[in-house]
Amino acid sequence: MSKSLFSAMALAVSLAAPVFAAGGVSEYAGSWQCRMEMTSRNIPFTLKLEEHDGKLSGSVTVPTGRAAVLAPVLLEDGSLYLTVDFIGWAEADFEYRLQGDVLTGTWDTGTDSGKLSGKRSSQEK
């Protein structure tokens, strides 16, 4: 999904509801230990997704403690889309696919991109 298309979808959905997801939402809910792969290093972070009335909201904890999930969190065609604001660095669009207790995907800031991976926290099992 292109960044401009994702942005347009995000704007349209945010006007209708702050956070939206449809079908399979509960499969993504929980705490995930993730890694953002970059050419020079990997950045570990925790992604927490919560379900309320069939909608997802999220939060991100990074080692610096400076990141935020921007609404909306979308679930479409089996992929989870969200934007994370790494405060002081960039906003990154995330796209994840779920296979069991493993997330795989990509991130893109518009000028840089890479792979994402995550595993459901052991406390969630």
Radius of gyration: 14 Å
How many E strands? 8
- The CATH topology name reads Lipocalin
- In total, how many domains does the architecture comprise? 1
Biggest beta sheet summary: 8 strands, antiparallel
What topology, given as strand order, has the largest sheet? 3-2-1-8-7-6-5-4
The SS-based structural class is mainly beta
Mean of residue pLDDT? 81
Number of helices: 2
**CATH architectural type:** Beta Barrel
C-alpha termini separation: 31 Å
- The helix content is 10-25%
Inertia-based shape: globular
Describe this structure in words.
The chain is mostly beta strands. It contains 2 helices and 8 strands.
Write the layout of secondary structure elements.
Layout: H1 3-16, H2 25-28, E1 30-37, E2 42-52, E3 55-61, E4 67-76, E5 79-86, E6 90-99, E7 102-108, E8 113-120
Antiparallel strand pairs: 1-2, 1-8, 2-3, 4-5, 5-6, 6-7, 7-8
Comma- or semicolon-separated keywords:
125 residues; 8-stranded antiparallel sheet; Lipocalin; disordered N terminus; globular; single chain; mainly beta; 2 helices
Structure summary:
The protein is mostly beta strands and 125 residues long. It is 14% helix and 55% strand.
